[in-house]
């Protein structure tokens, strides 16, 4: 199905639209469940009243200052991880080509740990994570560049950088003060606990700026998936598109990690799950963003409720689910 508006046209797949609509409904249901349930139950009508400042003081405190910011941060961070993973899996043409495996998450972790050891504030830790992610991406890109960047070379260099950075992170933790090491260890798990609007707003602004760029390069990226030579023959400036896409993917991954810590496997699993549901020949940005948002918020809701009153960091649950998914993925590829 093609929609034309003046000189612009957009091709839409009915199945992808149906899957995206279903994911939106699931995200709304998870959002309502996360805000209304817990030690203090808030009925749905009271949630709406509290959001518009018409509820009781207790309901407004729970909804507007505690639960809603956490859920919104989870939706935005999950969407950012989903799009970032889709970008790198498309560029590398490899389902393992996600920020978790090519060193970006480990680089962000290094920046965050350095900030913690230096006694930085929460804002400094977020800045350190973003800077670590950007620096790591620049180094990986430079080392993988040989007259251009091929997907398999980017993955191989990224895996090597990831292993090196994990060793650096372990070394930094062993040399840190015990209190700093405990703080860094907690941050490294990845959590949405205590997240407020000051965490959600930067991620929302980053998505507002970067998603249009992502939409602009999505079509040429599809052509690059057919091979650099074929893309160049169709007039695509391969390295320009690739550099722009990598920049967007790195910034999304860095901002998401700065807000919630290095939550693993969302960027890996979301694009592949979305591709299988939509039956698309390649990863799709919109469905990947929605899938990432659903995965992270649903995992965070389960982390809060399954072992209540004990609450797990969401990173523990995503790691458990992602490890199972990775094992299934490797088993399928082996066949």
UniProtKB/TrEMBL annotation:
Q: Name one Pfam family in it.
A: FecCD
**Any coiled-coil regions, as ranges:** none
Annotated localization: Cell membrane
Main location per UniProt? membrane
Please provide the record's keywords in A-Z order: Cell membrane, Membrane, Transmembrane, Transmembrane helix, Transport
Q: Where are the transmembrane segments?
A: 12-35, 71-92, 112-142, 154-173, 200-219, 240-270, 312-330
The membrane topology of this protein is:
Multi-pass membrane protein
What SUPFAM superfamilies is this protein classified in? ABC transporter involved in vitamin B12 uptake, BtuC
Q: Which PANTHER family match?
A: FERRIC ENTEROBACTIN TRANSPORT SYSTEM PERMEASE PROTEIN, FERRIC ENTEROBACTIN TRANSPORT SYSTEM PERMEASE PROTEIN FEPG
Q: Which family does it belong to?
A: Belongs to the binding-protein-dependent transport system permease family. FecCD subfamily.
What is the recorded name of this protein? FecCD family ABC transporter permease
Its ancestry begins with: Bacteria, Bacillati, Actinomycetota, Actinomycetes, Streptosporangiales
